[in-house]
């Protein structure tokens, strides 16, 4: 099997020089173009990209799936596994509403907010996309719910007006009575659904007076007149119920009402419930037969969870499968406050899906979209697979196959911030269950399950699912009790393996050449395909900008500006998780093109500078700027700076203060430099890097790192933040508020810390100890219009008064100058065309000698661009029935050569049979022989493709 690597250019990159030219001789065709090579991918589900969309509402358009959520966040997926972020916030330029602050000004003003809440998107019969938006005050149910249209699912949407409002204190509400928040709805969280006769309905509401349903005009998407707020189906007295979604199942002929109980935060106990009805507007009953209209808080209470917890079928809440002995991994991912779901039925496959957002154990408020397959048990209730969707299809199983050790989670009926963790049981071949719980189990038919534990019987299904924690396919089950409590089971994930083990054999990766702005992507793979291993991957030696997926082996490298003209080495390793002594390495080089010059500088601290901000002893540090707004209350001799030339560090102290201006920012020392010192005028690419020595004694929420910005309230930053452990972190600060906080890999600042922020071709890059760490709310484009930027180091300790110190070793700066650098290609042009030649004569695509060979091809094969020597460029021949191609290769590492072959000139199916780039390029004659025979009736054609990254 082979994985693929390819070159892609995010944003605007250094363009390729594409030259097409053909030469025919004994069935040979020659041309120049760009290089593409292939290697094989691993046969496991891949989760390479995630998205943050709170309250995701799913919409399918053709073969693509979209989710739309609060704050105008959105994402798309082609497989329901890998999600690609489209938008993240209510900001200018959001594709859904490019200027929501203006277009929806009345809505935002009514609700005293600057953001939007959970929407829904529905396609009307004429193809128009209807976007149901809402906004709410947040701490009160003063809300608006409106409608916008677009011809494109991704907008831009044009507002059509408000259909419902709430929170009109002391005034008449839409139902003709004075608004009462304990009875009337909070007009948010709309979700549209159809009945079997194509009637259109909307369910909505959050907390306050409960969940309501209205009948809609199926042609326009507006409510039918005379309904007021519609029909209440559950909730009231500020009970914590929201995020309603209704799906009709034609097989069971029930409408299923999904809601979320509790609070959405990590400590809120959010959990997903369901009830059902034979009519769209209710009544909705739970598995115990209780009418959900009674699921409400007691009179006079607020957030009365105890009164509503007994109602509704609880499908899932906080849950974590703990690691079991013998499993590959000793840690596991747990869901925290999963909720506000939507449902999708794929009519083609018959599969049902539950789409929700979730927080995670140990990751604070960071959340992502998750999709789990959903089934219906014998009692016609939905049950949710215990693991995220990985492309699985429920199958036919035998009791012998399913018997074994399982981890089980009892979800219960409570609303709690406690994470329900797994215990272990054995499903024995004789139908008994032993272990932490005892009872019986049986397989009915192909995959239906009946299991009794502790005297409670659950009915559900078995399905083979992908254990993401352990990266193995496992048997699993999901079931419900008669009163509506969920039980999940997942087979203990122990890989089948026995000695002798096949050695891991990583496929080699050839030398590469990249241009600034390009990204290399390749997948490490074991050529032996030894399935007994559970492999992880790591970088052993790599430049900034390189990263590897620990579980996928996908290696990416985006060169940074300060690497231009260098050949860098990337070394990676694959190892078996259960026995790391079983491992293999692969190494390759990458030449980074140098199409422009740079202006650069650095500040180090092994000597007293002649200028700059003075430390506590009056010694100049060489740093001449602070982020505006910081340090304004500090003395001229900064008491928070200590220049220690013996150790080569500038110690930056911090006590209780907050970088984004919430507290104490006037006494934060955030020293650095202005990029204008290095020729920056606002438009150039740049790379800045901070090197810290060992950072000790950081406490909860303390941060150390590198910033780029114009003031303490307008900046972007990256570094380390402390939760349970120090983690790589990045965030934007806009209008004094942190947004887009991204917490990633655990890092250890006690052995030093390297932080890089770069902007290249409009794309911002963030690396913390080599780990890509990009804020979740997109680019720092709010800084792109600044004519100057301040960059520097910071340390903040928001929550405790203990003094902390960050030992800064160096700050380095590199700004693109835009001028051409002296490359091999530039020297060749100077030699043949002189200084300042016309591009139409000396450019890579020009052909001044009219021999049908552009200059770049002439350069790549060592010929004279001013002499008509078409036939001399390449030699061809036929040897023993195989076509050969010979040419003189040049040692320029910026060139990429490829010889490709085909039997059909009209086909796009050209196969690479030889390639070279980077350090593999040498001054030598190259002869490439086609492995396929050209005898008989099958012709063979070869072509040479060349491009330069400079």
Can you describe this structure?
Mean pLDDT is 90; it is low at 1-43. The strands form 12 sheets. An 8-stranded antiparallel beta barrel has the order 24-26-27-28-29-30-31-32. Strands 40, 42, 43, 45, 50, 51, 52 and 54 form an 8-stranded antiparallel beta sheet that branches. Strands 41-44-53-46-47-48-49 form a 7-stranded antiparallel beta sheet, with no helix packed on it. The chain is globular. It folds into 3 domains: 47-234, Glycosyl hydrolase domain, family 43 (Tachylectin-2, Chain A, 5 Propeller); 238-387 and 396-506, Lipocalin; 599-816, Jelly Rolls (Sandwich), CATH 2.60.120. The protein is mainly beta and 950 residues long. The chain is built from 7 helices and 60 strands. 4% of the residues lie in helices and 40% in strands.
Task: Write the SSE topology.
Layout: E1 4-8, E2 37-38, E3 57-61, E4 64-68, E5 74-77, E6 84-87, H1 100-103, H2 105-110, E7 120-123, E8 129-136, E9 143-150, E10 158-166, E11 191-194, E12 200-204, E13 211-216, E14 231-234, E15 241-249, E16 254-261, E17 271-277, H3 305-308, E18 313-316, E19 319-320, E20 334-345, E21 352-360, E22 368-376, E23 382-384, H4 399-402, E24 404-410, E25 420-421, E26 423-427, E27 432-435, E28 439-444, E29 448-453, E30 456-467, E31 472-481, E32 486-491, E33 512-514, E34 519-523, E35 535-541, E36 546-548, E37 554-557, E38 567-576, E39 583-592, E40 598-604, E41 625-626, E42 641-644, E43 649-654, E44 671-674, E45 686-692, E46 703-711, E47 714-722, E48 726-734, E49 737-746, E50 753-760, E51 763-768, E52 771-772, E53 790-796, E54 804-816, H5 824-833, H6 839-842, H7 855-860, E55 875-879, E56 882-889, E57 895-902, E58 911-917, E59 924-929, E60 941-948
């Amino acid at each position: 099997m082979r994985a693929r690597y390819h070159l892609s250019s995010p944003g605007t990159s250094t363009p390729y020089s594409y030259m097409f030219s053909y030469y025919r001789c004994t069935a040979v065709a020659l041309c120049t173009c760009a290089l593409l090579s292939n290697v094989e991918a691993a046969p496991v589900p891949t989760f390479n990209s995630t998205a943050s969309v709170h309250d995701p509402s799913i919409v399918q358009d053709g073969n693509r799936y979209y989710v739309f959520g609060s704050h105008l966040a959105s994402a798309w997926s082609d497989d329901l596994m890998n999600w690609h972020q489209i938008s993240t916030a209510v900001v200018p330029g959001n594709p859904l509403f490019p200027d929501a602050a203006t277009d929806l000004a009345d809505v935002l003003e009514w609700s005293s907010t600057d953001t939007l809440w959970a929407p829904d998107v529905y396609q009307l019969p004429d193809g128009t996309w209807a976007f149901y938006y809402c906004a709410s005050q947040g701490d009160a149910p003063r809300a608006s719910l409106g409608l916008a249209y677009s011809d494109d699912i991704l907008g831009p949407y044009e507002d059509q007006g408000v259909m419902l409002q709430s929170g009109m204190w002391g005034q008449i509400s839409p139902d003709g009575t004075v608004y009462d928040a304990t009875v009337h709805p909070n007009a948010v969280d709309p979700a549209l659904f159809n009945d079997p006769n194509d009637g259109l309905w909307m369910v909505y509401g959050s907390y306050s007076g409960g969940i309501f349903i209205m009948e809609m005009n199926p042609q326009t998407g507006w409510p039918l007149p005379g309904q007021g707020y519609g029909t209440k189906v559950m909730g009231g007295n500020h009970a914590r119920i929201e995020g309603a979604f209704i799906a009709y199942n034609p097989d069971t002929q029930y409408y299923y009402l999904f809601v979320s109980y509790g609070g959405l935060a990590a400590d809120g106990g959010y959990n997903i419930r369901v009830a059902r009805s034979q009519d769209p507007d209710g009544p909705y009953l739970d598995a115990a037969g209780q009418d959900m209209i009674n699921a409400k808080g007691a009179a006079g209470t607020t957030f009365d969870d105890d009164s509503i917890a007994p109602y509704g079928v609880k499908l899932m809440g906080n849950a974590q499968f703990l690691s079991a002995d013998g499993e590959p991994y000793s840690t596991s991912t747990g869901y925290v406050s999963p909720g506000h779901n939507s449902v999708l039925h794929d009519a083609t496959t018959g599969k049902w899906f539950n789409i929700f957002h979730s927080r995670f154990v140990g990751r604070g408020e960071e959340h992502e979209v998750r999709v789990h397959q959903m089934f219906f048990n014998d009692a016609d209730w939905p049950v949710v697979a215990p693991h995220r969707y990985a492309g699985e299809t429920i199958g036919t199983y035998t009791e012998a196959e399913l018997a074994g050790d399982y981890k089980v989670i009892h979800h219960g009926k409570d609303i709690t911030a406690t994470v329900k963790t797994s215990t272990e049981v054995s499903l024995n071949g004789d139908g008994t269950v032993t272990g932490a719980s005892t009872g019986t189990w049986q397989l009915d038919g192909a995959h239906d399950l009946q299991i009794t534990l502790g005297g409670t019987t659950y009915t559900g299904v078995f399905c083979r699912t992908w254990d993401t924690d352990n990266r193995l396919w496992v048997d699993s089950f999901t079931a419900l009790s008669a009163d509506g409590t969920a039980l999940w089971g997942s087979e203990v994930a122990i890989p089948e393996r026995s000695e002798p083990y096949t050695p891991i054999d990583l496929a080699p990766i050839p030398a590469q050449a990249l241009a600034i702005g390009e990204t290399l992507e390749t997948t490490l793979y074991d050529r032996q395909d030894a399935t007994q291993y559970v492999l992880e991957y790591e970088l052993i030696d790599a430049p900034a900008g390189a990263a590897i997926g620990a579980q996928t082996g996908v290696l990416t490298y985006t060169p940074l500006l300060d690497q231009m003209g260098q050949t860098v080495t990337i070394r990676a390793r694959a190892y078996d998780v259960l026995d790391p002594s079983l491992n293999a390495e692969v190494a390759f080089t990458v030449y980074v093109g140098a199409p422009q010059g740079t202006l650069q500088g650095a500040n180090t601290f092994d000597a007293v500078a002649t200028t700059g901000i003075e430390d506590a002893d009056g010694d100049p540090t060489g740093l001449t700027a602070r982020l505006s707004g910081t340090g304004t209350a500090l003395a001229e001799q900064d008491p928070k700076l200590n220049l220690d030339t013996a150790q080569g560090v500038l110690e930056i102290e911090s006590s209780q203060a907050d970088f984004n201006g919430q507290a104490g920012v006037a006494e934060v020392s955030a020293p650095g430099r202005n990029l204008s010192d290095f020729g920056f005028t606002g438009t150039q690419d740049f790379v800045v890097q901070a090197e810290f020595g060992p950072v000790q004694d950081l406490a909860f929420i303390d941060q150390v790192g590198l910033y780029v910005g114009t003031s303490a309230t307008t900046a972007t930053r990256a570094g380390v933040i402390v939760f349970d452990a120090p983690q790589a972190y990045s965030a934007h600060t806009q209008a004094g508020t942190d947004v887009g906080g991204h917490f990633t890999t655990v890092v250890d600042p006690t052995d030093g810390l390297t932080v890089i922020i770069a902007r290249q071709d409009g794309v911002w890059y963030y690396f913390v100890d080599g780990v890509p760490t990009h804020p979740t709310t997109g680019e720092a484009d709010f800084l792109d219009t600044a004519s100057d930027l301040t960059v520097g180091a910071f340390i903040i300790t928001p929550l405790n008064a203990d003094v902390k110190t960050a030992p800064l070793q160096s700050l380095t700066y590199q700004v693109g100058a835009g001028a051409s650098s002296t490359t091999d290609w530039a020297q060749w042009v100077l030699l043949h065309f002189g200084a300042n030649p016309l591009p139409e004569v000396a450019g890579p695509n020009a052909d001044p000698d009219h021999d049908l060979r552009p200059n770049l091809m002439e350069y790549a094969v060592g010929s004279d661009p001013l002499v008509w020597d078409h036939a001399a460029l390449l030699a061809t021949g036929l040897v023993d029935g195989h076509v050969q191609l010979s040419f003189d290769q040049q040692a320029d590492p910026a060139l990429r050569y490829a010889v490709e072959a085909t039997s059909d000139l009209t086909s796009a199916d050209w196969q690479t049979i030889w390639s070279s780039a980077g350090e593999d390029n040498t001054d030598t004659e190259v002869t490439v022989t086609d492995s396929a025979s050209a005898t008989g009736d099958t012709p063979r054609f070869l072509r040479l493709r060349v491009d330069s990254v400079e």
